[in-house]
Amino acid sequence: MAYGNRLVYVKAAIWARGSIDDQDTGSQLAELRASADRRGLDVACEYVLDGACAWKGQHRDHLTQALADARTGSYDVLLVWAPDRLSREGVEATLGLLRRFYAAGAPVWSLREPWTETADPLMAELLGALYAWMARAESARRSERVWAGLARRS
Questions:
Q1: So where are the chain's domains?
Q2: Residue 54 CB: number of other CB atoms within 10 A?
Q3: Statement: the pTM of the whole predicted model exceeds 0.85
Q4: Alpha-carbon distance 130 to 117, whole Å?
Q5: CATH number of 2-153
Q6: pLDDT tens figures, 101-114
Q7: In angstroms, what CA-CA distances link 126 with 3, 34, 121, 130, 143?
């Protein structure tokens, strides 16, 4: 990437998490890799979780490793499909993760939510809170539909 008269090489990490029931990581990975390539980002590492349930915390070890790698400068930005791929645990958990990655020197950029790339961290925090609330509400609605379907089957 060019900044003024000098080139800055930016390393990216890719985070892809599928859901147990509805999504694998193949399409996420393809689009995230293509986005990194278009932006001139060097993909330094990938964190890929197929079928890892966020509600059961199966992704936490990977998050811990991704944060540790960000702190050591292994990458400069974390590319995700959408912020809800990191967490659907609500506003506090999602904002906490976004803040921790930012403080570690690797802000989170989302393909589906371009506001994550705003230069104003306060605006990103506000929008992140709204998005996290919507993601948690959608997750709750999905659970309700599943339970309703199971009740009808009984």
A1: 2-153
A2: 22
A3: no
A4: 16
A5: 3.40.50.1390
A6: 989 999 899 898 87
A7: 28, 28, 9, 7, 26
